[in-house]
Amino acid sequence: MHRFGPPSPIFFIVMARSADLLPAQPNPVLSGFGAAERAQHFLRRAAIGWVMVALFGQLLFSLYVTLVYGGAVVTGDTERWNHVMPRGYVPGDTAGNAALMSHVLIAVLIMLGGGLQLLPAIRRRLPALHRWVGRVYMISVMLASLAGLYLTWTRGEPSRMPQHIAISLNAIIIVTCAVFAWRAARARNFSAHRQWALRTFLAAGGVFFFRLGVFFWLLINRGPVGFDPKRSVGRSLRRWHLVCTYSYR
Fold first, then answer.
1. Is residue 208 part of a domain?
2. Is the pLDDT of residue 192 over 50?
3. How far apart (Å, rounded) are the C-alpha atoms in residues 157 and 164?
4. Greater confidence, 42 or 4?
């Protein structure tokens, strides 16, 4: 929803795909080159390790979203949303509040479901589960994108226009990638499906990458530098939104 702190999503693509694309056995072309074979071995290990760390991070983020937003609903204190985002809860705006709640709850499903889809063991041993989770995931990212677009253009401040444009482009990218992933799966073109599904996963994880980047930015600078934390407006956030939108490619 990178490169002040977290690794690049481009690197994440390479890491996530390498578990499937790197050969399980030494490449015959590289036989006799021990260093090259060892490099492939370590790259494969690094890929698995990086993916596990990234998935663990998204699991923690899902827990955070559930506790903060879902907890506020359970306790009837939805005004707590305003502590973590500008105009989170707006009295009288039933449609907007419902769209926000739907957006964040669907986001939890997206992060958890997307993580399952990345695991090769699920695809190999439970193909039916992989297909059904994939269907739910694709529908969820489309619904979350539409809700995000609605909130962006009905609640956004004019001063945040560059960020609105970046968020809207991100939503368009998510829907486009999801459609192509779905079409490739129906055509049984699994190589293309895997590529488009990974692009969907990375684009849909824009919010996660954005929050992670802001966290590291605050940590490095020991406070908000280049933006207003109360209104979420500023040069640093505008640039980071654009980076998160385009870097998945």
1. yes
2. yes
3. 9
4. 42
Higher pLDDT, 231 or 209: 209
| Residue 1 within a domain | no
Sign of CA dihedral 150, 151, 152, 156: positive
- Pair 117, 140: CB distance under 8 Å: no
pLDDT digits (tens, 9 = 90+) for 109-120: 888 888 788 788
Eight-class DSSP state of 85: S
Which of 56, 9, 12, 55 is CA-nearest to residue 240?
9
Exposed e or buried b per residue across 89-121, where buried means at least 16 C-beta atoms within 10 angstroms of its C-beta: bbeeeeebbebbbbbbbbbbbbbebbbbbbbee
Residue 210 forms part of a structural domain: yes
pLDDT value for 182: 93
Total tally of structural domains belonging to the chain: 1
Domain membership of residue 2 (yes or no) is no
Nearest by Cα to 208 from 156, 141, 139: 141
Question: Higher-confidence residue: 137 or 39?
Answer: 137
Enter the tokens of residue 182.
Answer: 């779905």
Do 229 and 237 contact (CB within 8 A), yes or no?
no
Residue-wise pLDDT for 221-243, tens only, equals 776 666 666 656 666 666 665 66
For residues 72-88, average pLDDT: 77
d(CA 242, CA 57): 22
* pTM (2 d.p.): 0.68
Surface-to-core class of residue 69, CB atoms within 10 Å of its CB (0-12 exposed, 13-18 middle, 19+ buried): buried
